[in-house]
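Running this now, will post back.
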Amino acid sequence: VFELQKPGTTSEATRGNPLRLIVALSSNATASGDLFWDDGESLDTFERGSYSYVVFNVTQNIFTSTVLHTSTEATEVTIGTLSIFGVQEPPSKVLLDGKEKPFSYLDNQVLTVSDLGLSLSQGFSLQWL
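Update: finished.
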Protein backbone atom coordinates (compact mmCIF):
# COMPACT_ATOMS: atom_id res chain seq x y z
CA VAL A 1 0.00 0.00 0.00
CA PHE A 2 1.36 3.42 -0.86
CA GLU A 3 0.02 6.95 -0.98
CA LEU A 4 -0.02 9.59 -3.70
CA GLN A 5 -0.96 13.25 -3.48
CA LYS A 6 -1.60 15.71 -6.29
CA PRO A 7 1.09 18.40 -6.18
CA GLY A 8 0.22 22.00 -5.37
CA THR A 9 2.12 25.21 -5.97
CA THR A 10 3.70 24.94 -2.50
CA SER A 11 4.35 22.14 -0.01
CA GLU A 12 1.61 23.53 2.20
CA ALA A 13 -0.86 23.55 -0.72
CA THR A 14 0.13 19.99 -1.65
CA ARG A 15 -0.53 18.74 1.89
CA GLY A 16 -4.11 20.00 1.61
CA ASN A 17 -4.88 17.80 -1.40
CA PRO A 18 -6.68 14.48 -0.84
CA LEU A 19 -4.60 11.31 -0.73
CA ARG A 20 -4.92 8.50 -3.22
CA LEU A 21 -4.16 5.09 -1.76
CA ILE A 22 -2.75 2.51 -4.16
CA VAL A 23 -2.95 -1.14 -3.12
CA ALA A 24 -1.15 -3.96 -4.95
CA LEU A 25 -2.52 -7.32 -3.88
CA SER A 26 -0.17 -10.27 -3.51
CA SER A 27 -0.81 -13.60 -5.23
CA ASN A 28 -2.88 -14.66 -2.20
CA ALA A 29 -4.93 -11.40 -2.40
CA THR A 30 -3.43 -9.71 0.67
CA ALA A 31 -1.57 -6.44 1.20
CA SER A 32 -0.35 -4.23 4.02
CA GLY A 33 1.28 -0.88 4.56
CA ASP A 34 1.45 2.04 6.92
CA LEU A 35 1.55 5.82 6.89
CA PHE A 36 3.37 8.22 9.23
CA TRP A 37 2.04 11.78 8.89
CA ASP A 38 3.26 14.92 10.65
CA ASP A 39 3.27 18.63 9.81
CA GLY A 40 6.29 18.22 7.54
CA GLU A 41 8.23 21.01 9.23
CA SER A 42 8.64 20.51 12.97
CA LEU A 43 11.40 18.55 14.64
CA ASP A 44 10.85 15.80 17.22
CA THR A 45 7.25 15.16 16.14
CA PHE A 46 7.46 11.54 17.25
CA GLU A 47 8.80 12.43 20.69
CA ARG A 48 6.12 15.11 21.15
CA GLY A 49 3.35 12.86 19.83
CA SER A 50 2.36 15.35 17.12
CA TYR A 51 2.01 12.84 14.33
CA SER A 52 -0.46 10.31 13.03
CA TYR A 53 0.25 6.68 12.32
CA VAL A 54 -2.16 4.56 10.29
CA VAL A 55 -1.88 0.89 9.33
CA PHE A 56 -3.55 -0.54 6.22
CA ASN A 57 -4.36 -4.22 5.66
CA VAL A 58 -6.19 -6.23 3.03
CA THR A 59 -7.41 -9.76 3.60
CA GLN A 60 -10.45 -11.67 2.33
CA ASN A 61 -11.63 -8.77 0.11
CA ILE A 62 -11.63 -6.28 2.98
CA PHE A 63 -9.38 -3.21 3.09
CA THR A 64 -8.99 -1.91 6.65
CA SER A 65 -7.51 1.38 7.81
CA THR A 66 -6.61 1.34 11.51
CA VAL A 67 -5.49 4.53 13.26
CA LEU A 68 -2.86 3.71 15.91
CA HIS A 69 -2.04 7.32 16.81
CA THR A 70 -3.53 10.61 15.68
CA SER A 71 -2.89 14.33 15.96
CA THR A 72 -4.58 17.49 14.73
CA GLU A 73 -2.64 17.47 11.44
CA ALA A 74 -4.41 14.29 10.35
CA THR A 75 -7.87 15.81 10.77
CA GLU A 76 -7.09 18.13 7.85
CA VAL A 77 -6.01 15.29 5.54
CA THR A 78 -8.56 13.34 3.54
CA ILE A 79 -8.42 10.10 1.60
CA GLY A 80 -10.08 10.79 -1.73
CA THR A 81 -9.50 7.66 -3.81
CA LEU A 82 -8.64 4.03 -3.16
CA SER A 83 -7.38 1.89 -6.06
CA ILE A 84 -6.80 -1.81 -5.56
CA PHE A 85 -4.74 -3.66 -8.19
CA GLY A 86 -5.14 -7.41 -8.57
CA VAL A 87 -8.86 -7.83 -7.82
CA GLN A 88 -9.38 -10.93 -9.95
CA GLU A 89 -13.18 -10.97 -10.19
CA PRO A 90 -15.41 -7.96 -10.95
CA PRO A 91 -17.25 -7.05 -7.74
CA SER A 92 -21.02 -6.79 -7.70
CA LYS A 93 -20.88 -4.18 -4.94
CA VAL A 94 -18.53 -2.29 -2.67
CA LEU A 95 -19.32 -1.43 0.94
CA LEU A 96 -17.69 1.39 2.88
CA ASP A 97 -18.28 0.80 6.58
CA GLY A 98 -21.28 -1.32 5.58
CA LYS A 99 -22.83 1.24 3.18
CA GLU A 100 -22.89 0.69 -0.57
CA LYS A 101 -20.51 2.91 -2.54
CA PRO A 102 -20.14 3.51 -6.32
CA PHE A 103 -17.01 2.02 -7.85
CA SER A 104 -15.29 1.27 -11.14
CA TYR A 105 -13.62 -1.95 -12.21
CA LEU A 106 -11.31 -2.23 -15.20
CA ASP A 107 -10.39 -5.34 -17.17
CA ASN A 108 -6.81 -4.99 -15.92
CA GLN A 109 -8.17 -6.03 -12.48
CA VAL A 110 -8.19 -2.56 -10.90
CA LEU A 111 -10.98 -1.68 -8.50
CA THR A 112 -11.29 2.06 -7.81
CA VAL A 113 -13.51 3.87 -5.34
CA SER A 114 -13.46 7.66 -5.63
CA ASP A 115 -14.91 10.64 -3.78
CA LEU A 116 -14.36 8.97 -0.43
CA GLY A 117 -13.75 12.16 1.58
CA LEU A 118 -12.52 10.16 4.57
CA SER A 119 -10.44 11.78 7.28
CA LEU A 120 -7.02 10.21 7.76
CA SER A 121 -7.68 10.41 11.50
CA GLN A 122 -10.61 7.96 11.34
CA GLY A 123 -10.36 4.25 10.64
CA PHE A 124 -12.58 2.63 8.04
CA SER A 125 -13.30 -0.63 6.29
CA LEU A 126 -13.98 -1.19 2.59
CA GLN A 127 -15.25 -4.55 1.36
CA TRP A 128 -15.93 -5.79 -2.14
CA LEU A 129 -18.31 -8.65 -2.89
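The longest helix spans residues 11-15. More later if anyone needs it.
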